[in-house]
Amino acid sequence: MVKRVYNFYPGPATLPLPVLEKAREELLNYKGLGMSVMELSHRSKEYDKIQEDASNLVKELMGLPDEYHVLWLQGGASTQFYMAPLNLRIEGKPMEYVNTGAWSKKAIKEAKFYGTVKVVASSEDENFSYIPKDIEFSEDAAYAHITGNNTIYGTEYHNWPDTPDDVPLVCDMSSNLMDKVIDPKNFGVIYAGAQKNLGPAGVTLVIVRDDLLKRVPEETPTMQKWRTHADKRSLFNTPPCWAVYICKLVLEYWKEKGGLKEIEKRNRKKAKILYDVIDNSNGFYKGHAKPNSRSLMNVTFNLETPELEEECVREAEKRDLIGLKGHRSVGGMRASIYNAMTVEGVEKLAEFLKEFQENHE
Ligand SMILES: *Cc1c(COP(=O)(O)O)cnc(C)c1O
């Protein structure tokens, strides 16, 4: 048996072991072709099928209606920070954003290059420990943008804000894509870097409703138009074939596991195990997120002192619980428990945290 640790890194993050095993099995000789998917022409029918299967699995698992396009792009979610305004802006209309943390801020910064940005709600006043309530976007907004899950602060939307009829909701779901059942009709655009909840780094999933492809000005560079990639089924240029292939294997695996309903059940169970440890620790562990904004994916918490936090991270490593150091802007600790993290891994962590508390009180 190959040694594997419990990997709580925020991204790139842990992948399902059966997926890695399957990739290993197929590495040298994919389906009898005598070559790896890494070496396969993106114009071959075999690659075409991989990508088509991946797109269809996204549609199936998320229940996407026909009018949504599934795109496989490069440049990370950070590239979508500017592609969204570039493709969706409308002269004279504000682009409206909710600021719930570091990634929202970066998205806002890029949008400002393309016109007027209005921040309609923010949780910066309390170090991004909550998701604002009663968010109101205006009737004349070009689009409304939110960050579905705040990877650094550990907060997540549990209800989607309403938008006026003609204002599409754009959501950065990099760290909570497919963590629960959603109604895709709430969204005009969803984008996500794959490396947190979907697959390896190097590919970005973008889901765009058909009518929104028409807004982009003709004189926009070809690669920067979502429409180009929708028209060419993400094969306008060479896609990140290997990354798409691994995403396909992950998607197949989620389907086999019962789809998003089952995944959601498991994610809620995992998150509850850790939040219960925090809530029952008499303040030894202090959760960063307000309870009603808690993320299913990134559990953030602090201990009494930075020294104690360091010790906790170090001790955890000795038990093969890896990647628990928090982001520098919140400090403390963060357990990223994406879809691929097992219940067993979370139970091991919970057990360790309880023991660590007993030994340090
Ligand atoms: C990680 C992350 C990003 C950045 O993704 P890249 O693919 O590295 O550009 C953006 N948004 C959120 C919410 C993230 O967690």
In short:
By secondary structure, the chain is an alpha/beta fold.
Helix content: 25-40%
At CATH level 3, the topology of the largest domain is Aspartate Aminotransferase, domain 2
Shape: globular
Q: How many structural domains are formed by the residues? A: 2
Assembly type: single chain
CATH class of the largest domain equals Alpha Beta
Structural class: alpha/beta
Unreliable stretches: none
Arrangement of strands in the largest sheet: 2-10-9-8-5-3-4
Report the total helices.
9
In the CATH hierarchy, what is the superfamily of the largest domain? Type I PLP-dependent aspartate aminotransferase-like (Major domain)
Strand content: 15-25%
Topology pattern, helix = H, strand = E: EHHEHEHEEEEEEEHHHEEHEEH
If classified by CATH, what would the architecture of the largest domain be? 3-Layer(aba) Sandwich
Distance between the termini: 38 Å
Largest sheet: 7 strands, mixed
Number of strands: 14
How would you describe what is shown here?
The two termini are 38 Å apart. Strands 2-10-9-8-5-3-4 form a seven-stranded mixed β-sheet, with helices on both faces. Strands 11-12-14 form a three-stranded antiparallel β-sheet. It has a two-stranded parallel sheet with strand order 1-13. It has two domains: 17-256, 3-Layer(aba) Sandwich (Aspartate Aminotransferase, domain 2), CATH 3.40.640.10; 259-360, Aspartate Aminotransferase, domain 1 (Alpha-Beta Complex). Helix 4 links the parallel strand 3 (95-99) and strand 4. The chain is of the alpha/beta class. Helix 1 (17-25) crosses helix 6, helix 3 crosses helix 4 and helix 7 (259-279) packs parallel to helix 9. The protein has nine helices and 14 strands. The model has no long low-confidence stretch (mean pLDDT 97). 34% of the residues lie in helices and 16% in strands. The structure holds pyridoxal-5'-phosphate (PLP). Residues 11, 76-78, 103, 147, 151, 172, 174-175, 193, 196 line the site of pyridoxal-5'-phosphate.
